[in-house]
Amino acid sequence: MKNEDKLIMSKKVNLASPKAGAKIIDVSDDFFAKCDRMLNDTDPIFIDDKYDDHGKWMDGWESRRKRVEGNDWAIIGLGGRCSIKDVIIDTSHFTGNYPPAASLDFSSNHSYEAGSLDWHPLLEKQILKGDHVNEFQLLKNENVTYVRLNIFPDGGVARLRLFGDLIPFSQDLSKAIELSALKNGGKIVGYNNAHYGNVNALLSEGRGTTMGDGWETRRRRVPGNDFIIIELGTPGLISNVEIDTCHFKGNFPDRASIQTIDLNNEKDKMKAFEASNNWELFLGEKKCKADTIHKFEKNDFLHEKIVSHIRLNIYPDGGVSRFRIFGQPVS
Question: What domain range is 69 assigned to?
């Protein structure tokens, strides 16, 4: 196998991303910088001479200087029932105004009412470095619906990233759904290249906002093609497929095809992932156009079998904004 075609395993889904359904539910104080910036998918930036009515503009969440006892906090509602493995508390560009320490708690409550949630420790109090990507492993957890970030005593956090797995709150399995969507438990398994953009955007809602809001590979200079592997939120029978090249005009793929497999009862999934080029062909090579939603239906498909994983091939390289697999879930 050429180096260009080697499978690179993706990180788990960032459950704190709005693309995964996360949102700020409550915050003790965000006087200097609004808390929802902390969940942005883009890397934090610093604009030297940008100020607003409250002072220096910062790309993240920042509370005012605390003059009383206690600490500041922010509560994030997640897009499903989650299990979280790792966290990044990113203090990039916060140098004289970062919190010296932070902790995390979680709740499994179904709805939020201030003061009524049952909180359990997710990350014991940890020392933070300023202008630094602080990474931590988390305590055992499951069915997480809310996360509380505590900062001691105050200060700024550029980004919060929570990596793990999402199970949707509720689904009507009697109806066709978007099997591949992040909000329905879909996830990126891996790819051979993802030089530009955000791969998780591929499975998120809406059309891409810019060319950076999708999956794009570098320019391929050797024979072959690029690919990405997706695990469906639940195995299913596929009824419709959409490949959206929104904003990709001089760099869309020339062609695309789809291969599939059902790994529901497979023990050695890694071996199957590494041999994904041998999966069954589901959609033969189709020409692509710039900035277009390409739609395919059952008449285009080469089989009607249950599918748990998808391999999207693009020829030879390029960018795809959104990839949607619709179908009937099979429990």
Answer: 14-167
